[in-house]
Amino acid sequence: MSGDRPVDVAARLVRERFPGVLAAFLGGSSVTGRRTPWSDLDIVVVLDGPPAPFRETLRFEGWVVELFVQTETSIEYYWGSDAERRRTPLLRMVADGVILAGGDGAATAFQERAAALLAAGPVAPDAATIDYQRYLLTDLVDDLRGCTEPVELAYLAATLMLAASDFLLLAENRWSARGKWLPRRIGEVDPDLPGRLAAGQRAVAVDGDREPLIAAVLAVLDFAGGPLQEGFVLSGKDPGRNAE
């Protein structure tokens, strides 16, 4: 791995590989205090046409590089696609990233657009969606309570930790995430909750003690009215009748 700063390495790659670039950004952990020896370089590049859009992983000067190469229209498409899933990786790489290229204000314009979309937040879920996820999460809690098979118990604990995290962000209408970014997102809502969920999952795995995890999940359910079982109704569709 090069001893140079990640920004310098990323800028050299962009200059060598994309001489006609409209804008480029370095995002991800490599430009933050959370960088580790295993961090890669997440680089978003905007071109005026082919070969974009594409994604590529490569090695450059010892760094693993994730390239996200877009056009002006494709980046809007993928921003929208991510937003429908309540995720924002590409948006954040641009909004929070370091500008590597993009004269005449092009890069700044992309950053301002990305920041505005992030600030607007995801589309608010309707009450039926919230209730359905409350019901599913409540059911998982009961599964954990009644489970007697050790392997299934371990899977249930891990599933509950992730499901509760996703539910909290849905109920609070926040952007979601995956991997290391998920506890960071839920920590923005409740700073203590990521640690409580992780400790609860660990207590199940190490000691078989389910109560800390159950308590943490019930606290999450309280954000949206508590557990839901009796009284839950989910309307279905009849394609044949609806076609009449």
TrEMBL record:
SUPFAM superfamilies: Nucleotidyltransferase. Signal peptide: none annotated. InterPro entries: NT_sf, Polymerase_NTP_transf_dom. Residues 12-70 form the Polymerase nucleotidyl transferase domain. Gene3D superfamilies: Beta Polymerase, domain 2. It comes from the Bacteria. This is Nucleotidyltransferase domain-containing protein. It comes from Actinoplanes flavus. The lineage of its organism: Bacteria, Bacillati, Actinomycetota, Actinomycetes, Micromonosporales.
